[in-house]
Specification:
Blueprint lengths: L1 H5 L5 H13 L6 H8 L5 H12 L3 H11 L5 H14 L10 H4 L4 H14 L5 H9 L7 H13 L5 H7 L5 H15 L5 H13 L4 H10 L1
Helix pairs in contact: 2-4, 3-4, 4-6, 5-6, 6-8, 8-10, 10-12, 11-12, 12-13, 12-14
């Protein structure tokens, strides 16, 4: 009870210790409070500890409640629930990782959904997932684009047909992002900043998507 009260303390360090205490001694009665706090906790490192505390409880108790949070109107509630589901990695949550979440207008929600999706996707459905993720190519700033590239790359070679199609898209941002992702798949050490700048040059020169893909593969 003291730990649960500590989750509402004005001091972030006290909230952190409270979350640690709850996770160290898991109690099913604490699950609702942990999830409730995830939705409003302002400090990143405290949210990470709340997620850890939730992973210490039985998935049969936490996963259904976290899935319920995915329908919340509060973006942080959705993103944190997705993040926690990706850490629990219970495949039963897969049907809840919908296209709507993966295309959520809030970048943090979408990024969390991409990460959860690549962790939870059933074997054999990776290509279909790649198709959904590819609809988000060119979205947002560098951090968001890097998150999407990492999610796609985690699916492996199955993404190549989808990337090749995206390299011929009318939107230059989509073509650039697809080319950069392909480069990182082939050369993980290239770095995203280098890959995206290289892709920009290729697009600016008017090289076709297929040509850009071939150049990337030859290097």
């Amino acid at each position: 009870m003291r730990a649960l009260q500590g989750l509402e303390n004005s001091s972030p360090s006290v909230r952190l210790q409270a979350a640690l205490a709850v996770g160290t001694n898991p109690d099913p009665q604490a699950i609702d409070k942990l999830i409730e706090r995830c939705a409003i906790e302002p400090e990143f490192y405290v949210r990470e500890m709340l997620t850890w505390a939730l992973t210490r409880h039985a998935p049969s108790l936490t996963v259904p409640k976290l899935i319920d949070e995915l329908r919340s109107e509060r973006a942080q509630a959705r993103s944190q629930a997705l993040h926690t589901l990706s850490k629990i990695a219970d495949r039963q949550a897969w049907p809840a990782i919908t296209r709507t979440l993966m295309t959520d207008p809030d970048d943090e929600v979408a990024r969390a959904a991409w990460r959860a999706a690549v962790v939870l996707v059933p074997e054999g459905e990776e290509a279909e997932l790649a198709g959904v993720l590819a609809t988000q190519l060119g979205r947002g700033e560098r951090e968001t684009q890097l998150s999407l590239s990492r999610a796609l790359i985690a699916l492996g070679e199955v993404i190549m047909p989808t990337l090749r199609a995206a390299m011929t898209a009318p939107d230059p941002r989509v073509r650039q992002h697809a080319m950069a992702t392909e480069r990182l798949l082939r050369d993980p050490d290239a770095g995203f900043e280098f890959a995206i700048e290289e892709a920009k040059r290729v697009v600016a020169l008017g090289v076709s998507g297929q040509g850009g893909a071939g150049q990337g593969a030859d290097r």
